[in-house]
Amino acid sequence: MTFHERYPQEVFSRFESILSQAPSQAAQLIVQSVAQGGILHTFGSGHSSLVAAEIVGRSGALVPVNQIIDRSEDLAERLEGYGLQLMEFYHQQYQLKAGEVVIIISNSGINPLPIEVALSAKSRELKVISISNVSQSRQSLSRHSSQKKLFELADISLDSYSPIGEAAFSHPEGYKLGTIASLTSLFIINLLMVESVEGLLERSSPPIFISENAPFRHSHYSSADDYNKALRLRYQGRLRRAGV
Question: Is pTM beyond 0.85 here?
Fold first, then answer.
């Protein structure tokens, strides 16, 4: 069987492993915070920033989600002190409030930037959910002076179950191919979003984005644009992509 024929099997088997964790506990943290008017913050640098952006301003996802942007574009991931400054800058702009939740994505979980984002969040009494390759992280040394790793700092740590070094297959000539880490992390964060929305639906009408590119019918709003704008206004000043 070729690598590309084996690749879907590798991905789907890891999805099954992810479901054996406790994502519902993580979703419950999000439900509790959002039900009280809180914002869900997400962070990742490098390719992990794609996962952090996945649920921001997304149809079918929650409105109160804000991404913490790595302004160094991955250049300062190993620079100690940058993460603390980044979080202070973000806090001054959008506020980090006690009891809110931040999801931090880092495949290795050993670099100073995601570790300091977690440390800063914890110091402000936010709940931290981490998405990382826990098995790889356990075998690696932290690059932060605290010697902590991301999964050790999280209130709830979710394992991406990606292969060591992200790629699934080894070629006889020494190459590795078949990156999986982003797919499994995307699966986790979307699973969290679905469970969180479901949990909020049991309480009241949750702030969920509606697609502005699909047919729309509502008794109080003439368009999906107006509906989404009204939802964004509830969180004015706290969302980077406010659209108002």
Answer: yes
